[in-house]
Amino acid sequence: MVAANFQAPFQISDGPLQQILGQHTYSIPDIQRPYAWKIQNAEDLINDLKKIDRSRVAGRPQQQHYLGTIVVVTQGGQRDEIVDGQQRLTTVSVLLGLFVRALTELADKAAQKAALNPNKAVRTSFQNIEITAKNKITIIQQCLRIQNGIDPVTHIAIWEPRIKVSPEISDIYKELIEGRDGTAVAPTKEPAKDLQKIAAYMFREFVEGDKFSKLLEADQLQHLDSRADEVLSGLVLVRLATNHANAAAELFESLNARGRPLNVLGLVKVWVIGTLRVVSAAQQIVDQVSIDFRSVTDDDDETAVKFFTDYFKIRSLQDVKSKVTPKDLSLLAREHIYGDESVMDKNNKHKATPMGQMAQKIADETAILKKLWPTWNELSHGSSSVAKKNRGLSRLPTVCAATPNPSWANSRLYLLLDKQWMSHLIAYPFLTAMADYFGTTGQLAQFEALLHDTEKFFFRAKSVCDIDPKEIHKIYFKQLELLKYTHAPNLSLLKQEMNTAISMHADDALFKQELLNVCTYDAKRDLTKYLLSMIETYAYSAPTPSSVAMAPQLAANLLDLRDWQIEHIVPQNPRPGAHQLPANEVNRLGNLCLLPPSWNGHLSNSDYQAKRLKVANRIKANFNLNVLDSHDVFTNSIVSNTQWTSTEVTARESKLVARALKIFVI
User: Fold this and answer.
1) Nearest-angstrom CA–CA distance, 7 and 136
2) CA–CA dist 629, 95 (Å, integer)
3) Could you give the number of structural domains in the chain?
4) Which of 171, 194, 195 is nearest to 184 (CA)?
5) 553 is in which domain, residue-wise?
6) How far apart are CA 461 and CA 248, in angstroms?
């Protein structure tokens, strides 16, 4: 960023909230993050106000609370753009609107009682309450709104808020500052929902407080009047105003470094604001960049930050340390994505984007950010958080829904990314870019195949053989590099590099050895369940010659494994007198099989012969044991007259491992 001239670019003023709000108008630039306060933030504010209230009650009415510094960019007669302070100003203005609501309700009640009471003195008392309440409303409203003309038909004044807030909360905000309870608006965005909850909390905890309904009307008026003054004059702010946008942005970063935490997305946006102004970008570019940034932060700020981290990897072709600070990541993004010369060392300045091209560079990269966001968001939610709530398959990411076999593709994605299974989180940048490319080009069958190859590669190389993640990164980043510079991946090269990594770090001998160590009941049970499902998926009943690659049954019934159970062929806790396996064999792969939901608990801890009989009887009763491997275990005539012994455990392991060696190839 161009260094800000801090010698004299700021006009500094301080004063109570009534002055800071009532003498200016503000707007939240579209490029800013949405409203982000939660109930906990509002609790801190209300606790500070309660301290002021206790001081007043104790006879110390001059007690005040410093609410912090706001930083604004002045624009010559237009609204001041808030660079820092939108969360606080938005919340306290809503709090004032809640006093308008309470005072309006009190004025209406007093007017009704005055109209109905025949006693002149009592009637006058209620009329005075009504007048005083309305006068207070007028004072508060001067801080909340400005007149913008007269309606030509009704001849009623047209009002608009002094603060033009972010679009996510605009409707609920207008309702609240106009003195309404906000129930007429049904928020759909998280920021608006949060603001509605905060408003209800502040009204309950501070505007009315304890025992308000039990007070007489005169006491209610005194209560509301005093507490409104505690907000108007008890909250004090410092206002830093400048017409140098880059100076405002730089000061904001400085404040952030001193304890005002801002996430990486916010820091990048602050830099973008200043830079676009410094280079005098066309308003069309500024508007489009604002829209693109806001599309990433509509709902969940935390999720947006995770996305930006993956976006950085896609565009910079670099990994990020797990503990990198938001400030450092924002600087890395400025250097490696935008080409900001001011943060580059002298050896890299030849890579800098010329200032004359910076506005277009920002616009281009922000367009890519916007384009990748929905794909990343769908991959993330479709395979993980939504899957946990809705059993894994109820929401298909668009790219999976368009593949030849949507449920199959989504199940592969879910098993690959979800924490219960392989938790391959480092694949997000790679899969996001690939999904975007194949979705754009319409080559969805290739994306479906890519998902399954990635799943098999990761299971073999990392889940079982524990390859160094850096080796996986190298493979993915190569494809991201091809996408960036040639605009297309090279799937033949991808397979070649995956197979090279397997031969070096997960060859057949090591895979066989580690498979028997990892896939046991007491080691990694979910991976064991996954392995058994894959063996079933790969045409168990139709062995193929060694020269022919095995193909999965895409219509297999093992798409959501959570309801399936691993069954011990010889039970862990056999009944007295029943055959037992040695303790070190009972949880081995050769003593395990997979049972579908309808069979859960049916075989219980019966011995092997009893289980064979139960299976035979249920099959006769038309209960289908639709897992061919498990069906074979309990119906195979070779062991019909024997117990399941160590010999069978070893033989079964050899058979399963042999199949795994054929399945987990690229």
Assistant:
1) 42
2) 65
3) 3
4) 171
5) 512-663
6) 50
Q: Give the residue from 360, 395, 430 where a domain finishes.
A: 395
| Residue 156 and residue 275 in one domain | no
Report helix angle 491-505 to 469-486, nearest 10: 170
How many Cα atoms occupy the beta-carbon half-sphere of 54 within 13 Å?
A: 7
Query: Does pTM top 0.70 for this prediction?
Result: yes
308 burial class (0-12, 13-18, 19+ CB within 10 angstroms)? Answer: buried
- The structure tokens listed for 101 are 């609501």
Percentage of the residues of the chain whose pLDDT score is greater than 70: 89
- With tokens 């010889």, the residue in question is 570
pLDDT in tens, 223-258: 999 999 999 999 999 998 888 766 666 666 665 544
Whether residue 448 is contained in a domain is answered as no
**222 & 338 share domain:** no
The per-residue pLDDT for range 414-439, each reduced to its tens digit, is 889 888 889 898 999 999 999 999 99
- How far is 660 from 653, CA to CA, in rounded Å? 10
Q: Is residue 565 within 8 Å of residue 594, measured between CB atoms? A: yes
- 115-123 contacts: CB < 8 A, separation 24 or more? none
Structure tokens at 373: 């966001």
Residues 182 and 270 in one domain: no
- Report d(CA 110, CA 101) in Å as an integer: 14
Q: Both 196 and 293 in a single domain?
A: no
